[in-house]
C-alpha cells in the first residue's frame, strides 16, 4: 500500500470501511470431523468450501453449501492439489495441463452442488500447498488461471497481493481479490511464515482481533521481525481448522464492529 492510499476495505476519502471475512469450511471427511462450520457460517461473509481433493466428502460439501445459502454467505471453491492424506499441505509439482483439468473439475463439481442447493460458486481460492506455490510459481499459477477462465462466468480469484497467481489471473482477464490472513504470521516480504515454525499460527482471539482491526483500519500488520508490513486486501481469512476458529471469528467481528467497520462480501 502506498502512503496516502485508502486503508484496507475503504473506497476513498471519507468512505466507510468495509471488509469481507472468509473461512475454510466443509473440510470434514467421513468419520473425521474438522471445524464448526455452522458456527463459522454465522460469522463470515464468504465460505471457502473444500472440493474433495484435500478434504470434504460429498455429503459434507452439500450440507455446507446448503447452510451457506441459508445464511446468505457467498460460496467459494477452495481448490487443491489431489492430497487427501496430507490435507493438501504437502509440496507437489503437477504438470500444468493436469493441474488445469483438476482445478476445473473441482470448480465444476462444487458449482453443481451449490446450484442444487439454490446457490452458486462466486469465487475461487486455492488451498494449502497449492495456494503457497501459486504465490511464486508462474507456471502453476497460470494453470489455475486457465482453469478459471475456461469455466467462464468471470469468477474472481482470491490470493495474496503481489502473488504470481494475481499476475496470472490479471493476464487472463480474471478479476483478482487480494486477501490478508487473520491467524497467520507474516514474513517481512509479505509471504506467510511456514507452518511448523514458532508463532506461525496465531491462536489468541483478542490478539488476532486487535491485529485484524489494525490491518483493516491502517492497511498494515506487524511482521514476524517486528517491522510494519503494508497488506492491501479486500478480504480477511480465518482458518476453519484452527481449534479456536469460532472464538477468533467472533472476536474479530466484535472488534471490527466496535471500530465502525462493516462486514460485507467483496464486490
Which key terms come to mind for this protein?
disordered N terminus; 267 residues; alpha/beta; eight-stranded parallel beta sheet; TIM Barrel; 36% helix
What is the first-to-last residue Cα distance?
20 Å
Residue runs with pLDDT of under 50 for 5 or more positions: 1-7, 10-15
Would you identify the CATH architecture? Answer: Alpha-Beta Barrel
Number of individual domains: 1
Pairing-aware structural class of the strands and helices?
A: alpha/beta
CATH topology: TIM Barrel
How much of the residues is beta strand, in percent? 15-25%
List the helices and strands in order.
Answer: EHEHEHEHHEHEHEEEHE
Q: What is the CA-based Rg, rounded?
A: 17 Å
Mean pLDDT comes to 92
Biggest sheet descriptor = 8 strands, parallel
The helix content is 25-40%
CATH class: Alpha Beta
Number of helices: 8
Shape: globular
Give the CATH H-level superfamily.
Glycoside hydrolase/deacetylase
Task: Describe the protein's architecture and organization.
The chain is an alpha/beta fold and 267 residues long. It has one domain: TIM Barrel, CATH 3.20.20. It contains eight helices and ten strands. The strands form two sheets. Strands 1, 2, 3, 4, 5, 6, 9 and 10 form an eight-stranded parallel sheet that branches. Helix 3 links the parallel strand 3 and strand 4. The N terminus is likely disordered.
